[in-house]
Amino acid sequence: MDGNTYSIVMLVVMLAIFYFLLIRPENKRKKKAEAMREGIKKGDTVTTIGGIVGRVVHANKDTLIIETSEDRVRVEVTRWAISTTGVQTTDQPVEEKTDKKKKKEEPAAIEEKAAPAEEKKD
Predict the structure, then answer these.
(1) Which of 16, 66, 73, 94 could pair covalently with 54 via S-S, beta carbons 3.0-4.6 A apart?
(2) What is the pLDDT of residues 9-22, one digit of tens each?
(3) Is 42 helix (H, G, I), strand (E, B) or coil?
(4) CA-CA distance, 101 to 91, in Å (whole number)?
């Protein structure tokens, strides 16, 4: 192969790699999200992109009316604004985050207690 043919083959290989690693998975994710949004029906619990959690009480072609609390607060949202069905949660429990803060604060508290004792000795 000469240099031009080699360059063209490498360009095609690079485009194929980009397609299979970037474009195709993104298209699959979009189709899956669209199917999830189209499958929402009355009674489903949903989470919006903004984090509002509610139960669907009415579903139109383009919009949903969700009830967000026991006080029957109703909000109309578009279907594209739905992030997930069900309640979206974080991976880490809240307890672990507060423990890390306590561990970081403890050494500072020990140093503050030790400092006044040193001043009294002088």
Answers:
(1) 66
(2) 999 999 999 999 99
(3) coil
(4) 18
A 10 A CB-CB count for 79 gives 17
Structure tokens given for 103: 């561990």
The three-state secondary structure class of 48 is strand
Q: Provide the 3-class DSSP secondary structure of residue 78.
A: strand
Which of 5-19, 47-61, 66-80, 82-96 has the lowest average pLDDT? 82-96
**Would you call 53 exposed, middle or buried from its count of C-beta atoms within 10 A (0-12, 13-18, 19+)?**
middle
* pTM assigned to the model: 0.56
Query: What is the CB neighbour count within 10 angstroms for residue 40?
Result: 17
Q: How far apart are the first and last CA of the chain?
A: 85
Look at residue 69 in the predicted model and tell me its pLDDT.
Answer: 86
